[in-house]
Input
Amino acid sequence: MKRILLLLTAILLYSCGSYKGIATDSIEKSINDWHHAAATANYDDYFNLMTNDAVFIGTDATENWQLKEFKIFSKPYFDKGKAWSFTPLERHVYQHNNVVYFDELLDTQMGICRGSGILKKEDGVYKIAHYVLSIAVPNENVASLTELKKQWDDHYKKELISRQ
Output
């Protein structure tokens, strides 16, 4: 009976998915290549590593970019020869069934940021389907940051409520 329970536990843990047991090399390569394409202002490579229905959520509350709009927004940065540079400091990759998702801490021009995303495999390549970027704020700085952005938040909340 103990052997059966041990076997069932092992099967359950393996089936839940995590970094182990998935094509980590190709996933890591896709994410790293995506960040590298931005850092080297390679517009085509950057957007070819995103799905056709990709979404990019930026650090500003107004930035919920569908792919077409994100391409338009990003083009001037890439055209200048330097978009943005996100260097991974730490990354965790997970898989559940056919869904691959990750979170990462990044060294950026904004300091340490957190990114999280969902990847889909298209044409044999893992591509970014959804990405969320946020500025990591130490807990001891939250009160002063909240005060700093209070007026903007109040104005934007009213705008959002008026749209409903």
Summary: Confidence is low (pLDDT under 50) at residues 1-21. Residues 53 and 128 are 10 Å apart (CA to CA). The longest helix spans residues 142-163.
